[in-house]
Write a structure and sequence with these properties.
Largest sheet: 12 strands, parallel
Structural class: alpha/beta
Radius of gyration: 21 Å
Order of helices and strands: HHEEEEEEEEEEEEEEEEEEEEH
Mean pLDDT: 88
Strand content: 25-35%
Low-confidence stretches: 1-13
Distance between the termini: 16 Å
Length: about 220
């Protein structure tokens, strides 16, 4: 901000106009800075983000959250690790508008439960993950919901819009869909390959956003 104050000190005639303009620029810079804080501590717990991960400026990552190498948290996501931990492995992508939370023992009773996401996992736009487990190379489609204590096994796929109820296990090699979600069929060979390709390509795409996006003045 030094250049703004220097410009003010050098003005003579019309100084009030320059002062007002500089103040406006300063307020704009401050508002942008504080409006874009994506990472927040909670009761002393700070998110841990790998240096190669991409976290969009408009995401909120709060408290006990771990994000692994080359993973990505896209625009408008909320990861609230307040009463339990959210863990995300390597090369996993959490796409735009997804909400991830955990289970508290103070709401509804029962034991608390973290949300655990493995390596090479794809989570589609606007999904909802609550106190569940997504194993390595699993896939959750757009606007799907995975509830408390549910598990999506490695190599399993949850269809867009599905509702995976509490304690459900989506088995490896299967496609589940519907509300409530049930097995629809086995995955095709092409779909099994896609699970890895999706994670790989999103990791590459995330680096493009990490290095290639900037705010327009």
């Amino acid at each position: 901000f030094g250049s703004s104050f220097a410009a003010v000190s050098e003005t003579s005639s019309g100084g009030l106009t320059s002062l007002a303009a500089s103040q406006r620029r300063l307020l704009t810079m401050l508002s942008r800075t504080f409006a874009r804080l994506a990472l927040r501590s909670f009761e002393g717990h700070v998110p841990h983000i790998a240096s190669t991960a991409f976290v969009a400026d408009s995401a909120d990552v709060i408290g006990k959250v771990d994000i692994g190498e080359h993973s990505s948290i896209w625009y408008g996501c909320v990861l609230r690790g307040d009463v339990e931990r959210i863990s995300i492995g390597k090369r996993s992508n959490i796409q735009d508008g997804t909400i991830i939370h955990v289970r508290s023992d103070s709401l509804g009773g029962g034991k608390p439960q973290p949300t655990t996401i493995g390596d090479d996992v794809t989570v589609g736009h606007q999904a909802l993950l609550h106190a569940c487990t997504l194993e390595d190379k699993s896939f959750v489609g757009m606007q799907a919901c995975v509830m408390d204590f549910a598990t999506v096994e490695s190599g399993a796929m949850v269809a867009a819009g599905a509702m995976v109820l509490s304690k459900t296990v989506v088995k490896s090699g299967e496609l589940w869909g519907g509300r409530p979600a049930k097995k629809m069929r086995d995955l095709t060979e092409k779909e099994v390959v896609f699970l890895s390709v999706s994670a790989e390509k999103y990791a590459e795409f995330a680096q493009r956003h990490k290095n290639g996006t900037k705010e327009v003045e």
